Inverse folding.
């Protein structure tokens, strides 16, 4: 995986690793399958870890008097405390990771849209919440790349997840190296990408690394990290932010391009702005100019290649300007 730090990802074991679903099934996830060549996966099945067999009667979340409970209606077992104990032990043993891919809508692993029921086995879903394990992950690691296999079928969500995942993996390596030079290099290489996510946070991070010798690495990294997390927590960059980045890149070639070349690029950018085409044509024009003119600064910018190209797909027209129903 040349040029990319290998991310460490906790994944629900039923997503292509073991037949551990309640009915003995294993779920096929195209994105998980693709990522096996690029990611160090750490599979886990919370329900098996608390002693349940395969197959097993399904679990559900039930609304109690004061809190949600995890129960198995068929047996009458209340597994809430067992699950909480497992979660506590698991988190204590878990080393630093970059992300999670969880089973969607699972009462244990789901982190969104999990059904919660009233008391009684035949009750209809009363509301929606998070699964016990998935909710605990979201609470403890809100700044990491967290998704489920269902939402990752949405291209925009998947693109943001992969971008965030590989960026966080690179940042983890910086922290491990413990050198100010590594942090400065990280910031420089990711400046355009961070610009797309948040210009305000980029500016704050830029000030921190502007005079790095004034602070020890341990203090500098602790101040830098929250700004990075806040920038990435905003979700996928808006189309206007991506346009702004390309316009900054265009400035690098202002002396080399003739008026016809600039007009050609701006025409494609306008088509993207108005939803007539995807982001790819305008992006690839800039990438071609980077190669043509050998711009050393832009060559290193992760914005133009945030994760391995084998994981990239064609960006559908207008995909990042529609209301995203998957949020």
């Amino acid at each position: 995986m040349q040029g990319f730090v290998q991310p460490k990802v906790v994944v629900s074991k039923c997503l292509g690793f073991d037949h551990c679903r309640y009915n003995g099934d294993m779920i096929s996830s195209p994105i998980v399958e693709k990522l096996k060549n690029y990611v160090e996966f750490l599979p886990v099945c919370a329900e098996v870890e608390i002693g349940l067999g395969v197959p097993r009667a399904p679990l559900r979340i039930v609304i109690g008097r004061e809190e949600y409970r995890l129960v198995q209606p068929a047996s009458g077992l209340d597994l809430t405390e067992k699950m909480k104990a497992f979660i506590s032990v698991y988190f204590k043993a878990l080393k630093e990771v970059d992300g999670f891919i969880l089973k969607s809508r699972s009462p244990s692993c789901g982190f969104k849209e999990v059904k919660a029921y009233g008391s009684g086995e035949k009750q209809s879903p009363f509301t929606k919440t998070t699964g016990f394990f998935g909710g605990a992950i979201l609470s403890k690691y809100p700044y990491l790349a967290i998704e489920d296999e269902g939402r990752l079928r949405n291209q925009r969500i998947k693109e943001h997840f992969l971008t965030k995942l590989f960026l966080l993996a690179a940042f983890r390596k910086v922290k491990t190296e413990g050198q100010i030079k590594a942090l400065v290099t990280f910031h420089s290489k990711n400046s355009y990408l961070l610009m797309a996510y948040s210009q305000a946070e980029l500016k704050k991070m830029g000030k921190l690394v502007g005079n790095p010798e004034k602070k020890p690495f341990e203090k500098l990294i602790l101040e830098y990290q929250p700004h990075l997390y806040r920038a990435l927590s905003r979700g996928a960059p808006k189309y206007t932010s991506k346009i702004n980045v390309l316009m900054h890149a265009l400035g690098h070639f202002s002396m080399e391009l003739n008026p016809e070349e600039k007009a050609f690029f701006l025409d494609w950018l306008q088509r993207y702005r108005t939803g007539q085409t995807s982001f790819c044509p305008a992006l690839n024009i800039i990438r071609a100019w980077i190669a043509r003119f050998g711009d050393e600064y832009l060559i290193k910018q992760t914005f133009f290649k945030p994760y391995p190209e084998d994981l990239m797909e064609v960006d559908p027209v207008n995909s990042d300007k529609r209301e995203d129903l998957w949020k």
Notes: The radius of gyration is 23 Å. The first strand starts at residue 8 and ends at 12. The CA atoms of residues 13 and 45 lie 5 Å apart.
